[in-house]
Queue: 2 jobs
Job 1
Amino acid sequence: MRPTAFDVPLYLAAVAAGMVLIALARWAAVRGARWESLVALRVGSVLFTEVVGAFLVGYGAGALVALQLGPSPGGPPRPPVGVGRFRGTGLFAPFDPANLPLTLGMVGSLLATLLRVDLREILSPARTKDPLARYVGWEARVIAPIAAGGYGEVALRDADGNVRAVAATADVDIADGANVAVVGTRDLNLLVAPT
């Protein structure tokens, strides 16, 4: 269905609602795991609410642009949009004003997904033998006291932003609630030091 000038408030509302959903998803992702599960709807490293918001922004913006590209009332018909193979009919004409809202909505949601996915981890051919080595240099907080040479637990955010409890060891005594830095690994545990 081709967008009409009477639908402009609806398309502006779609753009505004999409922006609100994107902001809400990012706010929830910063607030913590409870808000992520209720509002941001995290699927792996992708925030589903953000993807829906990006689709709405793209769809609304595409509809507003399609209004400008569509036939003008009372004037001569405009030439078909597209060049060569990109000129077509129906769903095979992504640059046709009738399909532009859906096309830009799909592009927006695809971009929102690609911005959240860590492609380096997916595409890297050689994965490290020590999976804990990726946390070296990260900040953490002690949630179970660590005696010198003993073991305890630290809480840190993983690559997806989720808070995880991880076993850790240290060369000095570290009290509960202390901020630490991951300085290395020892056996299958993180080696931490006070900051």
Job 2
Amino acid sequence: MNYIKRDLERKFLHMSSAFKAVMVVGARQVGKSEMLKHLAKDQNRTYVTMDDNQLRTFARTEPRLFLQTYQPPILIDEVQKAPELFEEIKIICDESDERGRFWLTGSQSKKLVKKAGDSLAGRLCILKMYSFSVREKLGIAPENDLDFSLGSLVSRNKLFPRNNILDTFDNIWRGGLPDVQNKDDEQLGEYFNSYIETYLMRDAVDDYGITDTDGFRRFLRACAAFSGQLINYNDLGVSAGVSGVTAKEWVKVLQSMGIVFLLEPFSSNELKRIVKTPKLYFCDTGFCAYLSSWTSRDVLMNGAASGHYYENYVIGELLRNYAYGKNTVNLNYYRDNKMKEIDLIIEESGILHPVEIKKTASPDKGAIKAFSTLKSAGRTMGNGAVICMSDVVLPMDENNIIVPSSFI
């Protein structure tokens, strides 16, 4: 498979020019090492991986000697396996004002991020990477960041393909892990099975001390069944045959592995009676579909859970978009005890953009009826959107726009 340009490249190189060390974190096999090796191919940059047992032992027992042997500029892969290196990296960073001396990849575990952040405060930038977005797979790179103005969205007509339900659900069912893109259905199933056993279970045991591996496998599948829903640790525990306390700890493990993410509820002092439970989503919809035994695109597309998967897909694409963009945004959802709900609230520069997600080509104004609730939140309201299977951008009213999901 030829190298596919990643949206994170721009941000990574920009941060490498400003920080002495840059670390890319994310789930196994999303392409972290491939991207950094690609960016380093025209540089005189040493490459070492801590997956190599001998190198890992050397780095852990003799970190100073290791970095005398393998000197910067250097790319260290899976650095979480040799955290002893961080103090020596700090010393070397302080010896020079040169930027971009250390390129690192690792898991996105809180333990790693804290250890790296504590040791390399002010010297390290940490960036998160996900599996392929649809934009990356299609080779589309818009010049401007996504915004919900009508003019900006209409201009995307020239870049993005028309919405197509078959293509959309093929992307949802297959997901974005680089190694699955050219596999047939049978190979896809075997790949994900191997992914669990080779990477996830090994990391669960080695890095997180999980001994109930059968229970953890059941828990993975339980999480897939609850994707897109308010998280209930007791229900998850019952489904996996473990306690609610264990379920809560294992969700944190899956977050650390980059397998799931929690969408937190929107909060405002002005709004009362807000539900405060996060919603559970998978970072890769293909892996989620495999865990739920959806055997083909068409079975998933026509199944009862298709709406949940479509929502997970849209939110995942937006998550990638903003993670790699220039501006910092907050992503939340809204629900209150009167069952008013907004699928997603994008807060950018203090402005709220409410978003509803519908697997329909013709949404009606009922889709935006909860948006008015945010007027009491004490924040500035921007344009809202209904992201759906429409194949054209259309104004729904003066403040809200119908947006094809293929445009994000």
